[in-house]
Structures are given as C-alpha cells and as structure tokens.
Write a structure and sequence with these properties.
The chain is mainly alpha-helical and 147 residues long. It contains five helices and no strands.
Length: 147
C-alpha cells in the first residue's frame, strides 16, 4: 500500500547544488591514480604482479614446515580405522596439540593482551550497535504520522 502511494507521487528534480557536487565527485574519482581505485580497475600487469607477490609472501610465510605438519596430521588421521569417531578423535587431539604448542610459544602477556583487546572490541561493537539502533529506529514519529 505504501509503495502504491509513493509511486503516485510526482518525480522531483534534484537541487542544482546536489547535481554539481555529484558531478564534481565523479570527476575527482576519475582523476585519481590507478592504485587508489578498486582492484578490478587496476592495469592487468599490476594485478598480475600483485597476485604473484602475494603468493610469494604466503609461500614464504607458511613455508614447508606448516605443510609438513598438516600432511603428517592428515596421514595419521587417514591411517586410523574408517570409523568417523577415530578420525574425529585424531582431529581433536591434533587441535589440542597445536593449542598446547601455541600456549608454550606465545608469551602469556600477549595472550592476556589479545583477550583484553577482544573484550574491548566486543564492548565497542555492542555500544556502537546500541547507539546506531537508538539513532535509527527509536526516533519518535511526528504527531499525526501513521508510520
């Protein structure tokens, strides 16, 4: 019903200042260098170089050690009987070993700092969500407005 009412309204012309600002913004965006634009608008050589460099960085970061550990974990899981319970138990055991290794390697202050940062970010997200909800949905409607 509301859609029908809105469709019946006559079209309005945008203010001249809005039209000028939109045209100015489009011209400003067109004049930006390619590296400030979206990835799909980069030149093909730049995109290919970016993908190659990122792949090399990932390869250097992950290295052979991590893949060897994953391969060993998968081979141990595959060597277990076909029953899904044994595979699940092996997976949980591997996850616990990795967690224990990380707890031995990572300093306790880093763990407490990460937990503190996570709680602070969650509280900020909750606060911003509550403020946005209040600003967008809890506005009193003018008198006589049915919506």
């Amino acid at each position: 019903m509301l859609n029908a009412l809105v469709r019946e309204l006559p079209l309005r012309r945008a203010p001249a200042t809005l039209e000028f600002r939109v045209c100015r913004e489009l011209a400003r965006r067109a004049a930006r260098p390619w590296w400030f634009r979206g990835f799909t608008q980069w030149p093909a050589a730049a995109r290919i170089s970016f993908v190659v460099i990122c792949s090399a960085i990932i390869r250097l970061t992950v290295g052979d050690g991590a893949w060897t550990m994953v391969a060993e974990t998968l081979s141990h899981a595959a060597a277990a009987p076909v029953s899904w319970t044994h595979a699940t138990a092996a997976l949980i055991g591997s996850a616990c070993e990795v967690a224990a290794l990380l707890l031995r390697v990572v300093p306790a202050t880093w763990i407490y700092g990460a937990l503190t940062a996570g709680v602070a970010l969650y509280a900020a997200l909750f606060g911003l969500s509550a403020a946005a909800y209040r600003a967008l949905y809890l506005r009193p409607s003018p008198a006589g407005d049915p919506l």
